[in-house]
UniProtKB/TrEMBL annotation:
Pfam families: CTP_transf_like (PF01467). It comes from the Eukaryota. It is an enzyme of class 2 (transferase). GO terms for molecular function: choline-phosphate cytidylyltransferase activity; phosphatidylcholine binding. Its EC number is 2.7.7.15. This is choline-phosphate cytidylyltransferase. Residues 8-93 form the Cytidyltransferase-like domain. It comes from Stentor coeruleus.
Length: 167
């Protein structure tokens, strides 16, 4: 049986349970050959998408999941017929159809949203415990300026921890 080449393109920052479930669901169909397109840093910046990880780190993370057969890095933000032909893509899947997908709408299919921890959930957790994560990083030897802290803020955090000196 010939497999259908299915492309899911995105940022894939802080590879999350939501990402994993989407890829797992696609891969559970034995007729699917799952291709993940990862936007590079230039593309994410041009489209005002803030990322924690670099494009290289994001694409490397995906290489280590059994639900992915192939990675295209960098992947264009706006997909063209030419790009799909070059990579022999049969289907493009995304949670929502927008203007970026007009040229390829004949090959577009909507992905069902799957529950699970998302990248935004992870970021919210870190922001909610910001002081604790700063304290942890400082106690592990990071310099306050590596964390984007002012020296006074770092000293206050260190006093709370009972440390006497900061880098």
């Amino acid at each position: 049986m010939e497999q259908k080449r299915v492309l899911v393109a995105g940022v894939f920052d802080l590879f999350s349970l939501c990402h994993m479930r989407v890829l797992e669901k696609l891969k559970s169909d034995p007729s699917n050959y799952v291709i993940v397109g990862v936007y590079d840093d230039e593309t994410t910046q041009e489209n005002k998408i803030l990322t924690v990880m670099t494009g290289y780190e994001r694409s490397e993370n995906l290489k280590h999941t059994r639900f992915v057969d192939e990675i295209i890095y960098p992947c264009p933000f706006v997909l063209s017929q030419e790009f799909l032909q070059k990579h022999n893509i049969d289907v493009v899947m995304s949670e929502n159809f927008d203007d970026r997908h007009r040229e390829i709408q004949a090959k577009f299919q909507t992905l069902d949203h799957l529950d699970g921890t998302s990248t935004n959930d992870i970021i919210a957790r870190v922001l909610n415990e910001y002081d604790e994560y700063c304290e942890r990083s400082l106690s592990r030897g990071y310099a306050y300026n590596e964390l984007g802290l002012k020296e006074l803020d770092a000293k206050c955090l260190f006093l709370r921890l009972g440390h006497k000196k900061i880098r």
